């Protein structure tokens, strides 16, 4: 059993997504080529002149990704989606470390991207155009550009970039809650703006939707004062209270809160990284001590035999 497991472990290390083997470097090169080709397809002039070349490159990359996925399914077998791991930091009621299921996010994302890309690359038969339901197939063809997401594997190649990415992911829950508060706040202001300014300025506050869009423009400081606020203030002199209060709370306070959440998350990730390094160093010291103890015991046994 151990002899069979060792080759599988080596193959897992070879395809684990850390971009530290020739195979993974080659796959990163293919991902880069495919990402560039997907970007070039957005240009009408390039597509007209090099349509066939871009199609061939796209199909070659797709089939390489399919082969990569099949290879991973064979290597990981039942552990393709994840595996049970032991968390030494959390001790259960039985006095033993707790187990948890670790999802293999790279494998799951590769599976989704390849399946969507494969379906989207199927030929769009003329007979399907008779049925309206199949017109959404064109959307599937656009979705195949999701393959560009595979370029995020470059993150694994650089340690600093990986820690930055982890910090951003860690900050997502806090950012979402902040955006939820911003959405409620903007919704209230949109209702107020629609009720007050809808008749004179229907382009900006005609409906609840256009009001929300205008408030999004104000939040991003996109020529909001000269294009939106100043003309309205000429008709409604006290409208400055509405705009200034929204800008102060939404654009200044809430956006700074989001920046603070990201900075704190980055700091936590750095601390977590330092703790891991310290733990790894302490484990090395412990193993060295154990080895030295075993060597000294062996020396004593040898001396006794002599």
Offer a concise description of the structure.
Helices cover 73% and strands 6% of the residues. The chain is mostly helical and 306 residues long. The chain starts with a helix and ends with a helix.
Notes on the protein architecture:
The chain is mainly α. The chain is 73% helix and 6% strand. The chain has ten helices and two strands. It has helices at residues 2-14, 22-40, 44-76, 105-120, 137-143, 159-197, 202-205, 208-219, 224-235, 239-305; strands at residues 82-91, 97-103. A two-stranded antiparallel ribbon has the order 1-2. Strand 1 and strand 2 form a beta hairpin. The radius of gyration is 29 Å and the shape is flat. Mean pLDDT is 76; it is low at 125-135.
Note the topology:
Blueprint: H1 2-14, H2 22-40, H3 44-76, E1 82-91, E2 97-103, H4 105-120, H5 137-143, H6 159-197, H7 202-205, H8 208-219, H9 224-235, H10 239-305
Antiparallel strand pairs: 1-2
Q: Helical content, roughly?
A: over 70%
Which of globular, elongated, flat, extended, rod-shaped describes the shape? flat
The averaged pLDDT comes out at 76
Rg, Cα atoms, Å: 29 Å
Query: Which sequence of strands runs across the widest sheet?
Result: 1-2
Contiguous helical run count: 10
The SS-based structural class is mainly alpha
Task: Please trace the helix and strand order, writing H or E for each element.
Answer: HHHEEHHHHHHH
The number of distinct β-strands equals 2
């Amino acid at each position: 059993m151990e002899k069979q497991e060792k080759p599988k472990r080596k193959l897992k290390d070879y395809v684990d997504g850390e971009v530290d083997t020739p195979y993974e470097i080659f796959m990163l090169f293919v991902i880069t080529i495919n990402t560039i080709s997907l970007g070039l397809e957005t240009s009408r002039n390039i597509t007209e002149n090099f349509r066939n070349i871009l199609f061939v490159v796209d199909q070659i990359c797709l089939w390489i990704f399919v082969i990569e996925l099949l290879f991973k399914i064979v290597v990981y077998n039942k552990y393709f989606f994840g595996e049970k791991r032991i968390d030494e930091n959390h001790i259960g009621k039985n006095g033993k470390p707790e187990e948890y299921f670790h999802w293999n996010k790279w494998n799951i994302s590769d599976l989704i991207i390849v399946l969507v890309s494969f379906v989207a690359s199927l030929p769009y038969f003329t007979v399907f155009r008779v049925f309206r339901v199949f017109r959404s197939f064109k959307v599937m063809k656009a979705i195949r550009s999701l393959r560009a997401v595979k370029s995020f594997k470059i993150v694994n190649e650089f340690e600093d970039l990986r820690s930055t990415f982890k910090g951003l992911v860690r900050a997502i829950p806090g950012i979402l809650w902040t955006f939820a508060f911003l959405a409620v706040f903007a919704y209230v202001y949109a209702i107020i703006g629609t009720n007050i300014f809808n008749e004179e300025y229907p382009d900006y506050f005609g409906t609840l939707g256009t009001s929300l869009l205008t408030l999004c423009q104000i939040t991003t400081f996109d020529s909001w004062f000269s294009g939106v606020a100043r003309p309205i203030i000429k008709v409604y002199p006290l409208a400055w209270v509405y705009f200034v209060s929204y800008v102060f709370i939404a654009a200044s306070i809430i956006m700074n809160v989001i920046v603070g959440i990201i900075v704190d998350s980055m700091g936590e990730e750095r601390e977590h990284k330092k703790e891991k390094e310290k733990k790894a160093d302490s484990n090395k010291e412990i193993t060295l001590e154990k080895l030295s103890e075993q060597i000294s015991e062996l020396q004593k046994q040898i001396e006794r035999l002599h």
